[in-house]
Design goal:
The chain is of the alpha+beta class. It has a single domain, classed as Aminopeptidase. It has four helices and five strands. Strand 3 and strand 4 form a beta hairpin. The longest helix is centred in the middle third of the chain and has 16 residues.
Amino acid sequence: MITISTDFNKQIYQKIVKIWKVTGISNPERCDSFENIMATLEKNAVFLTALNNDNIIATCWLTSDYRRLHLHHMAVLPEFQNKGIAQLLIDKAKEFSKEYKLQLKLEVNKNNQIAKNLYLKNGFKILDSFITMIRRDIN
């Protein structure tokens, strides 16, 4: 039985970091520390985990800039991929988007065709007239 949880604490964080590493989305430059995630959760954000018998098998982090709800770090353990888990997380994200009355926005690697197909199937549009830019250093 798969359930979706919004619980988040240091122990959960340690488990999701392992999922991020296994799925290849972990990157120290992203500043995804426990403290940074907690700071967003105090400001209208939510962290979703998919559980299989109390074991975390997938993650999705939603943050808000009060204009849009941003979907980050969608990751499903390989042995649970292609079983509808990501769709459950997307559905929950869409519920929050509707509740908060915010557009749902995300970034996806241009080479990740499986994820792109999932997002397109869920009504996301490619904004091909934009490029993503970031300044990683915070000094």
